[in-house]
Amino acid sequence: MKGIANKTLVPVYEKPDCNSSLSDELLYGMPVTVIKSCIPSINKWVYIMTEYQYTGYVKRQDLVLEECNQSYTKWEHAPKKRVTKVYADVLSESRVKGRVVMELTKGAIIAYCGLVMQEQAGWAKVMLADGCYGYMIDEFLEEPRNAWNVSEDRMRQQLVQIAMQYLGTQYRWGGKSPLGIDCSGLTSMAYLINGILIHRDAKMVEGFPVHEIAFEDRKPGDLLYFKGHIAMAIDERRYIHATAKMGSNGVVINSLCPEDSDYREDLAKGILAVGSVF
Question: Where in the numbering of this chain does the NlpC/P60 domain appear (predicted)?
C-alpha cells in the first residue's frame, strides 16, 4: 500500500513510540510504501519505507493512504511541483489575506493545477494530498528537476547551490528541512532536489548511484565520508556539512587546509572515503 505525507513535517521514528529516536523526516507530499500496520487494536502506527529505502514508524493519521481513498488517486495522477522557498504558505484564496491552509518547507511536493487567471498575476492553484485545494505564489514552485538534462559542471554547481541554501540551519537529528537538518539530511536533500536519489545515511550503499573515487579526484558536489558523518565538497579546500559540534552547531562551511581559520582537524584527518555520482 502506498501513502503520501500529509503534514508539513512527518516524523519517522525508530519505534512506534513518540518518545523513541527520530530516524528520518518526511516533507509534505513525499511518497512512501506502507509495509505493515502496527498495534491492530488501535491502528495508530504504520511501518513505512521511503523512496530512498529508509524505514521507520509514522502515525497513520499523518499520511493519506492509497487504500480506499479517492484523494490519493487524484493526487497520484496530478502534475507535481517542488517548493523552492525556505517556507511557503498554501492559502485559502489567491491573495495575501487568504487563510493559511498548510505551511510547506523547501523540498516539499505539491500537486499543481495551473496559474490563476486574475487581475493580480502570479498565483497558482494547488491541490493537497487530502484532495483540498489552495493557492500559492507561483514563483515559489518549480518543475521537478531531471538530473541528466544538464551538464556535469552545471549539476555540480546546482548541488552545491542547494546545499548552501541551508547555511545556518540548526542541527536536528533525523531532520532534513530548513527547521532543522542533520548531515545526511543535508546531502540527500541537495541531491533529491536535483533529481538524484542517494542513500540517506553517512555511508555508500550498493544499489544507489554514489561510488567511491580517489580523494585527489574530488570535485564540487562530491561527498566526503567520515565515521558517522558526511559532508559535501564545495571546492578543493572547503566543504559544507551539518554538524552538532558545540560552537558551530548547524549547517556550516569548514576547510581541509590547516592554514584556514575554519579548519577542523578532527574531520580533515578522519576522511574514510570520497563518493561521487559522476
Answer: 153-275
